[in-house]
Design brief:
Helix content is about 35%, strand content about 20%. It contains 11 helices and 12 strands. It has a domain of about 200 residues: Isopropylmalate Dehydrogenase (3-Layer(aba) Sandwich). The longest helix has 22 residues. It has a 10-stranded mixed sheet with strand order 2-1-3-12-11-4-5-10-8-9, sandwiched between helices. The chain has a two-stranded antiparallel sheet with strand order 6-7. The radius of gyration is 20 Å and the shape is globular.
Length: about 375
């Protein structure tokens, strides 16, 4: 999949305990699919084996128990698990008293400060005209508007409601997210050296594109921009990595017009969320784009798609994003060989184009796609 082997969190462990948090909607279908793939990996002397713990979180759990992220779930993740997979959460668009997103809370509790989303096209034998895309989006994961500091007042002059939201950007969080982006750019370049030049989508020097809106938000986005730039400017390790910038609105425009212009993209939390979801349209569906919430001591794989209540329980959900997220989890835990077995199996199925779920124009079920990937392994 040509993203990055960043660092090993668990290189010497042969028995990995993975927390499985299906949460809401189709999460309960795609997480078991990812589990099947992990269980089908080789089990030799140099291969990891897996123990799985199913744990609770989500809006549906909140409706029954009054909390979206029980303390028991946090305790199990912190004390018993080496990593985790999260399915999907149904966060309502209207205010629900006492509810907040469990995945946002998990990112903060476990200090998973970067959301890593590779967006890579697989040129299908049945659609050879698809745009070639190979972008890694690194999204700061703990700050911006996601600190959720909101308030509502009555404007004395008009008597009407006014809502405010505070936004947080810190030099500390910006620099460490920027550092991860530059590290990943180096790692992707190293992996590409094993691929013939004519087969690469990105053929130039590694590059990091910093996304911001500092022409308007000169203090907050200005600090983000300066902090990320300083990572390269103060460390000669990154001399081989090109750096450029994009104002967020022109970034969206260029992303769809010329996605081949981007290698690694690093963005504040909100911009990164929007860009990475939009980029999924370039490669067919939200159902194929994986993600990982990455910190220095823990990783949670998380597909980009939502809970999709309209198809939940119908065996129509695309399991590919969750399966690729399981690969991404292994990659960041120090098992690149096993991760790439998963990536290659998925790409094999997508390239043939015979067994696909409805979001990709097929008619296959969740389990049929999972079975095809199992066979490709």
């Amino acid at each position: 999949m040509s993203h990055i082997i960043r660092r090993s969190l668990t290189t010497h462990l042969k028995k990995l305990t993975i927390g499985l948090i299906p949460a809401d909607g189709i999460g309960r279908e795609v997480i078991p699919a990812a589990q099947q793939i992990l269980e089908a990996l080789p089990t030799g002397a140099d291969d990891p084996s897996f123990n799985f713990i199913y744990i609770d979180a989500g809006f549906e759990y909140f409706q029954k128990h009054g909390t979206a992220l029980p303390e028991k779930t946090l305790d199990i993740l912190k004390n018993e698990c080496n990593g985790a997979l999260f399915g999907a959460v149904s966060s309502p668009s209207h205010k629900v008293a006492g509810y907040s997103s469990p995945i946002v809370a998990l990112r903060k509790h476990l200090d998973l400060y970067a959301n890593v989303r590779p967006v890579k096209s697989v040129i299908s034998d049945k659609d050879p005209n698809q745009k070639p895309v190979d972008i890694l989006i690194v999204r700061e994961n703990t700050e911006c508007l996601y600190v959720k500091q909101e308030r509502q007042l009555i404007d004395e002059a008009t008597g009407l409601k006014v809502a405010w939201a505070d936004r947080k950007i810190s030099e500390y969080a910006s620099k460490r997210c920027g550092k991860m982006a530059f590290e990943m750019a180096l790692g992707r370049d190293k992996l590409r050296q094993n691929v013939p030049l004519e087969q690469r989508i990105w053929k130039s020097k590694p590059k990091v594109t910093i996304v911001h809106k500092s022409n308007v938000l000169s203090i907050t986005d200005g600090l983000w921009r300066e902090s990320v730039r300083s990572v390269k400017e103060k460390d000669h390790k990154y001399d081989s990595v090109d750096m450029d910038e994009q104002i967020v609105d022109s970034m969206v425009y260029r992303l769809f017009r010329e996605p081949q212009a981007f290698d690694v993209v690093v963005a504040p939390n909100l911009y990164g969320d929007i860009i990475s979801d939009g980029a999924a349209a370039l490669v067919g569906s939200l159902g194929v784009v994986p993600g990982a919430n990455v910190g220095d001591n823990f990783v949670i794989g998380e597909p980009v798609h939502g809970s999709a209540p309209d198809i939940a329980g119908q065996n129509k959900a695309n399991p590919i994003a969750a399966i690729r997220s399981a690969g991404l989890l292994l990659e960041h835990m120090g098992y690149p060989k096993h991760a790439f077995k998963i990536y290659n199996a998925v790409e094999n199925v997508m390239r043939k184009g015979d067994i696909l779920t409805p979001d990709l124009g097929g008619s296959s079920t969740t389990q049929q796609v999972t079975d095809a990937i199992l066979k490709a392994l």
